[in-house]
Amino acid sequence: MLAYEPVGIVYIAGANDGEPPNAQRLLERVKPEACALGGELVGVMMSANVTYPGSLHGDDSQHAYMVLRKKVAGEPTTQKF
User: Fold this and answer.
1) How far apart are CA 57 and CA 45, in angstroms?
2) 21: which of 38, 47, 59, 78 fits an S-S bond (Cβ 3.0–4.6 Å)?
3) What distance in Å separates the CA atoms of residue 52 and residue 64, rounded to the nearest whole number?
């Protein structure tokens, strides 16, 4: 059984061209969002450099981070709606 469960995703679009997902500037943006979700651990879920050929839009980077927290004994692992 896994010790962590996902609580959400933080997505950053429009980062600087070629900017890695572990850039300090991006992590400073991710941390408060992850904490607001109740997260304790963040992992890079997706990282991409995007090119827009033939357009006025400059190239950029986009990143998605999976936010996780430790499972608590007795809490449900899924939420029913």
Assistant:
1) 25
2) 47
3) 20
Expressed as residue numbers, the domain containing 43 is: 4-70
pLDDT in tens, the chain (81 residues): 578 999 999 999 888 888 899 999 999 999 999 999 999 999 999 999 888 777 766 788 999 999 999 988 776 666 666
- 25 within 8 A of 81, measured Cβ to Cβ: no
Cα gap 34→7, rounded to integer Å: 9
- Cα of first residue to Cα of last residue in the chain, in angstroms, is 24
Q: For residues 69 and 40, is the Cβ–Cβ distance under 8 A?
A: yes
Residue 77 covered by a domain: no
* Conformational region of residue 38, where left means phi above 0, alpha means psi within -120 to 50, and beta covers everything else: left
